[in-house]
Each structure stands twice: as C-alpha cells, then as structure tokens.
Design brief:
Two copies of one chain form a homodimer. By secondary structure, chain A is α/β, with parallel strands linked by helices. The first copy, chain A, folds into two domains: about 170 residues, Rossmann fold, CATH 3.40.50; about 100 residues, Orthogonal Bundle (6-phosphogluconate dehydrogenase C-terminal fold). In chain A, about 50% of the residues lie in helices and about 15% in strands. Chain A has eleven helices and eight strands. In chain A, helix 4 runs parallel beside helix 5 and helix 7 crosses helix 10. The relative contact order of chain A is 0.10. At the A-B interface, helix 7, helix 8, helix 9, helix 10 and helix 11 of A face helix 7, helix 8, helix 9, helix 10 and helix 11 of B.
Chain lengths: ~280, ~280
C-alpha cells in the first residue's frame, strides 16, 4: 500500500523529478533526492521540494528509502541501477519516468536483485523548459499516466505504482505492455516531435514571426526540444518511429495528391474525419 | 482617416465578421451587417455586436456605409461584389479577411467600379469553432494582421486598412504583396493544417486518447477544420501549397534517414536549430 509513511527517493532532480518531489511533499511523503548538481539540491531544499539531497551515492542514505523513482535519461538509468542497486533496501519498489519502455524495462528487470521490484511508468506531461527550477506539479493535472507492467511484476507492486500516479495528480491511469506503450508513444509523441522539428528546419523561417498565426505556434511549441534526451529516445524506439513516420508521410502524400488533382471531395472527407476524431482528444 | 464617425458594414457575420463587429462597436463605430441567416442577425443585435442587420441586399441600406468588410468564403466574396457593387456608396473603402490573396485581390480590383477602392487584409486569428455565436474579439489580441496592397491602391486607403487592424486590437500590422502573403500563408497556415489533418487521419486513433500527452493535442488542435472553407483556400493557393508540402516532406525524410542511420549528431543538430528558431515565435 502506498501510504505516506513511505520514504521516496528521486534519482535525477530535473523538471520531472522535481515536479514529482513537489507533488509528493505536498501529500506528506518524506522525499529524498540524488542528483549530480549541488545547485539543484540547494534550490529544491530552499523551495521545500525535498527533505534531503545528495550529489554522491551514499549507501546508508540510499538504504533508507522504500520507493525509488528514476527520473534520468535512459542510458544513465541503466548504468545507475547496475552500479548502485546493491545499496537499495531489500523489498523496495522501483519505478521510472522514461519515455520509452521496451528497451528499458526488460533490461532493468533482467539485471535486478530478486528482492527488488521494478514497474515502469510514463507520466505524459512536460514543459518546453527543463531543470528543477521549472518544476511544477500542476503539469500533471488532467494528464495521462501509463504503467507498463511485465510478467515479472506482482499485482501489489503494479497497484502501488498506479496509486503513485493518482497521488501525483494524474487524471487518467492506464496499463499497457512495454511494446504497446512504445507504439503509442512513437505515434503520439515521437512522431509529433519529428514533425515540429521538420517544420522549424525545412526552410528559412527567421523573418516569418510577423506573419504567424496560432496554428504555426501550436505545431512548433515542442520544437523547443532537449536534443540530448530526445535523440536518445528516438533511437531507442527506432523501428516503431520509422513506421509511424512512414504512415504519416504516406497520408501527407495522399493530401498532396488531392490538392494537386483539385479533389475537393476527398479533401473535405479527410477534413470531416479529422474534425470528428479530434473531438475525442479534448482534455 | 479612419475615425469612428465612419459607418462600417460587415458582409458575412460568422466568427471573424462577428468578432470584427464586436471590436468596432466597442470602439464607437456604427456597425451594420448583411448575412444569410436571420438567426445570426438576431443574436448579434441582442449581444450588441451590430446596430442593424439585414438578410437581403437592400440598395439604400448598403449605400449608407463608408467602409465594407467582406468576411465571406472566397468564391462567395467574388460573386457578392460582382452582383452588388453597384449599390455601394461612391468613395467607399472595401477590405476583406480572406486567407488567400493573389486569386482574390486582383480579381476584385479588376472588376471594381473606379470610384471604389479595395485593399486586401488578412487577420491571422481564428478559433476551432465557427459562427457569430463564437465571436470574440479577444482573439485579435497579440495576433498578426497582414495588409496586401497592390499597385492599384492609394497610400491613404492602405493606411486606413492598417489603422483598422490597430483599432481591432492586432499587435503587429505588416504589409506584404499578395504573392508573398500567399507564400507565407502556404507555409505557416495551410501546410500546418495539412499536417494536422494527416496526423488525425493516417491511422486509427480513436482509442488513443487515454495515452495522449499535450504534444499530440497541440499538433491537432487545428485538425478541427471547416472543410468547406479550407478546401477552397487550399485549391486557391495550390501551387504554393504543393511546394510547401514538398519542402516539409523532404525534411521529414531527412529526419527519417537520420533515425534509420542512428545519426545522433545530425538529429541533435536539427533539434538545436529547431529550439533556437522557435524562440523567435513566442507571442
């Protein structure tokens, strides 16, 4: 049971780690952090996001926590667990916030000590700015949270990670296996980031801001992108992402042909379908 | 000079026509309307958006206005002017809100009585919902307004249409010739609408709403699209739109190749360029 007498350690105090910390502190949990930068810890202590923080992995400190949340880049996460899982308290529950799952969850579970349990999770929330100084747990309000259990997980641990999503304030908690998760995210999130970057880089745009309407702004908000993290996420989900790009590119070509052929009927049919479907996605 | 003793007639009382009326009434102008639906007129009168409205083209009524704003679909606009310009007061200033210019402005100016002047304009604002009942002039706040003069226009009339944009509340008023306007809009607005429709129609998406983050919502807000108006606008700007689709599609393929080749350096370079450029587009 995820009661707030559980002590929670956040590993990686960036935008998402910091927002987790803020939400959990407000709900009465004791929250610790391990992160590289002393400045991030100082800020989080001053703002009351955490109770304690360290830049080094101190075995006694790590061993004091019942739940460990990894809010790291994917490659760093795998290395951290490999190097430091020996210090984690027996029976602890581990989870993460990583944007891809198949290439992470199974590797973590395969290397994990048998007395620890890891349940993957993906909070579908973010901002165009990073770092703990931009932490803001209101980004979880109304947002989706996906838990990605495998056959290696117990129902009790899955339920606790789902409850963590509710405690953080997410509106909708879902379960997907890692493969289905990655397919959804390849389409909904990775493809959309590719599109935003392509729009922003396909031609000189510097002088266009005086002529922009909201549509271009909407489509490129996420063109402000953390290049280190997203390039890593793209390549960890390469096959799925290529498929989604091809699906989308094929439909762009169909629209192109309809325009080229002045096929008003087809254009209007696609626009009506698009309008009808979009209604399902209002928050 | 655009002083508020000028009487302004809005032809077509939809979302944009209604929002113009609301803004102009608030600034003390006398505002009339001609539109097809008596219900729209009744609503606009009740809400104080207009002083008077008619569903028929009454010559005496039309002749009472100094400025005529056409907020009609492109094809309807051309027919209306052809049929009814004879009733407009000599010396009146005409303008519009149409989303494409080359195929409209020159035709209007070619057919217009010599004692009337038409200066094209494009308010870069809108909503996902249409109709006068959704009129809201706050959509002009912070938005761009483009005036598209030609060699047929006088500086005085251009200045009045620019002043109209300021009176309506637009933040930035620009001048572009019709061809440059259409190229900008083909990229910034029409291409983005094609992308939104393609995203929404390239695969089954009905069950995905539980897994969506804000990025997919952002990129598809404009997937709610008026199919009659937008298909007409696309075809009126066909050559430009096809060029912009090809530019964008080429860049999507470049990103696809970078992913396929695990070319992290290229991906990160594109993402950094994208991030830097996007900063120019914040409102």
């Amino acid at each position: 049971m995820l009661t707030n007498d559980k002590k929670i350690l956040i590993v990686g105090l960036g935008l998402i780690g910091g927002s987790y910390a803020q939400a959990l502190k407000r709900r009465g949990f004791s929250v610790g952090a391990v992160t590289r930068s002393q400045g991030s810890i100082d800020y989080a202590l001053k703002e009351g996001l955490i109770d304690r923080g360290m830049t080094e992995v101190d075995p006694d400190y790590i061993a004091g926590y019942d739940i460990v949340v990894f809010a790291l880049y994917p490659g760093v996460l795998l290395k951290w667990i490999e190097a430091n899982q020996q210090y984690i308290k027996s029976g602890a529950l581990l989870t993460d916030v990583t944007g891809v799952k198949s290439k992470i969850v199974y590797k973590v579970q395969a290397m994990l000590r048998p007395d620890l349990e890891f349940v993957g999770a993906h909070p579908m929330a973010g901002r165009e700015v990073g770092g703990v100084r931009n932490a803001d747990c209101s980004i979880f309000q109304g947002a989706n949270y996906i838990v990605t259990p495998t056959a290696a997980n117990t129902e009790a641990a899955i339920a606790d990670v789902e409850e963590l999503g509710r405690v953080l304030g997410f509106a909708r908690i879902s379960r997907l296996n890692p493969e289905l998760h990655d397919e959804m995210i390849g389409f909904l999130s990775q493809l959309t980031h590719c599109i935003a970057v392509a729009l922003m880089t396909c031609r000189e745009v510097e002088h266009l801001s005086a002529y922009t309407g909201d549509s271009f702004r909407d489509l490129t908000r996420i063109a402000r992108i953390n290049d280190e993290m997203w390039s890593e996420l793209f390549l960890l989900n390469k096959d799925v992402l290529l498929e989604q790009i091809d699906l989308f590119a094929g439909q762009m070509q169909a629209i192109r042909e309809a325009v080229a052929n002045s096929d008003t009927d087809l254009l209007r049919e696609l626009m009506r379908q698009s309008t009808e479907r979009r209604a399902l996605f209002d928050k």
